[in-house]
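=== RUN LOG ===
request id: a7f3
mode: sequence -> structure
chains: 1
length: 326
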Amino acid sequence: MTTTVQRPLGSPFSATARSEDVMAGHDLSRTTAVVTGGSSGLGLETTRALTAAGARVVVPARRPQVARAALRGIGGCEVVPMDLADLDSVRAAAAHIRDSVGRLDLLMAVAGVMATPERRVGPGWEGQLAANHFGHFTLACELYPLLAASGAAGGARVVVNSSAGHSLTDIRRHDPHFRTGYDKWLAYGQSKTANALFAVHLDALGRDDGVRAFALHPGKIITGLQREMSLREQIDRGWVDEHGNVIGVGFKTPSQGAATGLWAATSPLLDGRGGLYLEDCDVARVSAPDAPMDDGDVRAYAVDPEGAARLWDLSAAATGATPVPR
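=== RESULT ===
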């Protein structure tokens, strides 16, 4: 893949599309999906839309009882305990899923954290990189045989929620774990770049098995993702008013925010494609290096195949995840 394929495809949907718009007419009655973060925010919208179309959805959750309560009344879904920041927990969840399903058609990596206080997990990893990237990397590697089984039967897709925040920084190869000083926004940006690069290389490895991968910016949405930001910080950024009401220009509803991921999972326009960064239910363009983050599009470094391969090797060495066949 090169960055020249990052061109819009002429999708019939746009930034205002809702989950129900992009899912209209899709029959997913033979589809099995895993949706991380599937019991809150954009993940909950994703679970609702997939199950409404007939899919069986497995929802890994750090707090399974809370997740089950949130999903009460939604048929066709199962909750599995999993903490993305704890790789033993990720492996246990993957083992449970492998034992319970024969193949996996969709892996939707929706869960994430943003702008958190400094946290160290595992062997001292920076917490946002660990939860947003290493956890999903490990889960995808452990579930790859199920994805390949579906790929052989007609195709599987992995959809990873990145963010426009990736424009804050490339992978900090000199100090990915912020040993020399922590910045919560740079840490978030690095983890979102990692999400995008992960999709690029997973697609390169998986395409011969019928496994295609995409990363995306869902848009600006107020959900539980902002839970570790103070109300004052959100007010100062112009996102909400003093009462917590969303006032930011260009903000989407959760249904609109879930639409691009659902489009990535189901659109026939993406058949035979992969390794792409998406936004507003279409393929994003490559942005200029100094373009404002709010202008959208994707930085060249976030879709660079060589950078993606280097990050893959770093991630595999760090996590010890089961290798994806090359």
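=== NOTES ===
The chain has nine helices and ten strands.
The longest strand covers residues 211-217.
=== END ===
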